[in-house]
Design a protein that fits this description.
The protein is mainly alpha-helical. The chain contains 2 helices and no strands. The protein has one domain. Helix 1 packs antiparallel against helix 2. The longest helix is centred in the C-terminal third of the chain and has 26 residues. The N and C termini lie far apart (37 Å).
Length: 68
Amino acid sequence: MIRDSFPEEIQDLASIFVELQRKRHQADHVPRYRLTRSEVLTEIEASEMAIKKLRRAREQRWVKQPPA
């Protein structure tokens, strides 16, 4: 499966993006769709955590290790 070939950090961020996109679509097209402030803050926190995790992974993979 193609998904399995991507690092976990990319998969996590992609999953959060898809979920946020779904909720945005609902907010745009379903007049009665509402999120509480707490729900929005939880989504923001999850997004920020996924971005931080991706950045840490990128730094770990791309920082060259000093020669032994």
